[in-house]
Amino acid sequence: MLSWIDPFLLPLHHLIDATAAWLPMSVVIVLLTVLVRLLMHPLNRATYRATLHRQRIAPMVAQVRTQHGKNPERLQRELLELHQREGVSPVAGCLPALVQLPVFGIVYRLFAAPQIAGTANALLHHTLMGVPMTAHAASAGAGLPVFLALIAVSLLVAYLTMRQTRAHLIAPAEGVEPRQVEIVQTMNKVVPWMSFGSVFAVVVMPLGTGLYLVTSALWTLLERYAVRRTVTV
């Protein structure tokens, strides 16, 4: 399904394979993850700054909803004008997730596809403590302890991320319609638990992809802490 990206993946495949000749593949994956997240860091800082701006204008948004709630067309127009006037994008928070999805697809293919652009996938021969990077937890056999250790780390990171998310949930603004309050409250209950989705992915994905996910989740946890302490509006 992702074979169409193989021509673009081949140079990266060769680079990772060459680097793994003098560094363990696990270290290469961690370094690759850190490089990707460093490139995305300015975007994440901008996203958090946009979140602070949305919190700032939340009372104004509530006022507009109260004034024009019975006229959907007028409401949408007024909300758009408000966001433009205040320089706030209503969709800024979605961008980092959208960027990470193709990156995840690339990493998954690198450690799952038998061939990359018609060339044998050399990354399939690399191991972590004797466990192939392509192995899955269900079929790891003697390598199951490696997966259990990775899952344990993933669970810890997911738990800390859940607590971090809960500590920074945004309460519904005053004046918001009851239906909107209900939606926000429901989201505030669900969103913190989404961090455990990475644990499920580690269980079902190849070892190499799981290592990428755990490293990325840990980076996200630390990055959010740092960004919240340094970014202001």
From TrEMBL:
Membrane topology: Multi-pass membrane protein
Record function comment: Required for the insertion and/or proper folding and/or complex formation of integral membrane proteins into the membrane. Involved in integration of membrane proteins that insert both dependently and independently of the Sec translocase complex, as well as at least some lipoproteins. Aids folding of multispanning membrane proteins.
Pfam families: 60KD_IMP
Location relative to the cell: Membrane
Subunit structure and binding partners: Interacts with the Sec translocase complex via SecD. Specifically interacts with transmembrane segments of nascent integral membrane proteins during membrane integration.
NCBIfam families documented for this protein: yidC_oxa1_cterm
The keyword Membrane appears for this protein: yes
Domain Membrane insertase YidC/Oxa/ALB C-terminal: 27-228
Alphabetical list of InterPro entries matching this protein: YidC/ALB3/OXA1/COX18, YidC/Oxa/ALB_C
Keywords, in A-Z order: Membrane, Transmembrane, Transmembrane helix
Transmembrane segments: 20-40, 142-162, 196-222
Family: Belongs to the OXA1/ALB3/YidC family. Type 1 subfamily.
Protein name, entry field: Membrane protein insertase YidC
Coiled coil regions, renumbered to chain: none
Species whose genome carries this gene: Ornithinimicrobium cryptoxanthini
